[in-house]
Amino acid sequence: MLRHPKIEGIFQAAVEVFSHSGFDQAKVDEIAQKAGVAKGTIYYHFRSKEELFLGMISEGLEKLVDFVERNIQTSDDPIVQLEQVVRAQLLFFSENAKLAKIILQEAFGTKERQQEFRHHVRDYLRLIEGLLEKGQAQGVFRVANVSEMASAIFGALSVSALQKIFSLEGDALQTDQALVILSDSMVHFVLGGIKMS
């Protein structure tokens, strides 16, 4: 996903400001200063702070899908692939903690944010649904409702990652160690519930 460097800089600055101040308190002036651009440049690309925020959510979820897709291409086994989804989502949220906090905390604010979040998370849920369906077809997974299970997996991983991000904020080494333990626990939790014996 190629992005103009100026837009990428604006998004990175927006992540910093929104994660620190929250949507309501964030100022476009501060985002422009951090991005090293004029305030008018931001308004040239985005009509409002809300549109910038929605663009950032969209960009973040696209990056999540891309990251997870790249991590599951090493195997055709749906069990291994689902394990890789669990580990990749947790790793992505850990490595992009500020973005994860924004997406998971602020995405449910306005109706537009909720719609944008649902629209973009849909691609990610389809990826998980595809693995669950493949596993069912091969007789290795038992899932009553694929769509609900995909949402449950995303939700459980998201809440678990967010809890770790908040509890270990600022301690990178401890966060990395906790991520390994959390990944193992979540793989056991997810696969234990659906894998055929």
Question: Would you mind describing this structure in some detail?
Answer:
With 197 residues, this protein is an all-alpha fold. The chain has two domains: 1-46, Arc Repressor Mutant, subunit A; 50-194, Tetracycline Repressor, domain 2 (Orthogonal Bundle). The chain contains nine helices and no strands. Helix 5 packs parallel to helix 8 (146-167). The N and C termini lie far apart (40 Å). The relative contact order is 0.11. The model has no long low-confidence stretch (mean pLDDT 87).
The residue fraction in helices comes out at: over 70%
Given as residue ranges, the uncertain stretches (5+ residues, pLDDT < 50) are: none
CATH level 1 name of the largest domain? Mainly Alpha
CATH topology of the largest domain: Tetracycline Repressor, domain 2
Structural class determined from secondary elements: mainly alpha
CATH architecture classification of the largest domain? Orthogonal Bundle
**What portion of the residues fall into strands of 2 or more residues?**
under 5%
Amino- and carboxy-terminal Cα gap: 40 Å
Largest pleated sheet = none
Which homologous superfamily in CATH is the superfamily of the largest domain? Tetracycline Repressor, domain 2
Number of domains: 2
